[in-house]
Amino acid sequence: MLNYNITHPNDPLMPYIVFDTTLTYPKDQQKLSYSKAVKRNVGVEFVNVPLELAYTSGELETLAKEDGLWKDGDSQEKKAEAVKTYYKHHCPSWKAITGVNMAVQGTSSEFYPRRNYKLKTKTDYDDDGKSRVHIFLNRGPFTNDYDSD
């Protein structure tokens, strides 16, 4: 998706996710999980490019209004709260440098060039003060190497 966004700047930009195994493993083990039994602790960076661009351009206020989160005549505080709500509920970007558990999702994914990955993160607390494990399922093609050239 990084390459797509660079080579298609006039098309809708795509969110992307980067898995990093280089921080916690020796060089010979810096690979993505290849089976359900092999779990890896990885760093993850998810970037929702369209949402971040809407945030930096100020477009979130308009999008929140289109979603009915605020209307003409509402206070600035109501608009600001609506923008925060819109942002929070439209998959914002996030980063975890380490501590995300990754494994192949299901044995049927083990032998294909495209694997489904299950990521588990644990938060110290959520908005309601409770600790939780959050599970993200990632589907699609991948590459083990990223060539920055």
Walk across the major sheet and give the strand order. Answer: 1-2-3-4-5
Alpha-carbon distance between the two ends: 15 Å
Poorly predicted regions are: 144-149
Rg over alpha carbons: 19 Å
Counted beta strands: 5
Strand content: 25-35%
Count of alpha/pi helices: 4
Run of helices and strands: HEEHHHEEE
Any key phrases for this structure?
149 residues; alpha+beta; 2 domains; five-stranded antiparallel β-sheet; globular; disordered C terminus
Detailed description of the structure:
This protein is α+β, with helices and mostly antiparallel strands. The protein folds into two domains: 17-47 and 95-149, no CATH class; 50-92, no CATH class. The chain is 23% helix and 26% strand. It is built from four helices and five strands. The protein has helices spanning 2-7, 49-57, 60-66, 76-88; strands at 16-20, 40-47, 94-104, 117-123, 132-138. It has a five-stranded antiparallel β-sheet with strand order 1-2-3-4-5, with no helix packed on it. Helix 3 crosses helix 4. The longest helix has 13 residues, at 76-88. It is globular. Mean pLDDT is 81; it is low at 144-149.
Tell me briefly what this model is.
The protein has 149 residues and is of the alpha+beta class. It contains 4 helices and 5 strands; from the N terminus they run H-E-E-H-H-H-E-E-E.
What is the topology?
Layout: H1 2-7, E1 16-20, E2 40-47, H2 49-57, H3 60-66, H4 76-88, E3 94-104, E4 117-123, E5 132-138
Antiparallel strand pairs: 1-2, 2-3, 3-4, 4-5
Helix pairs in contact: 3-4
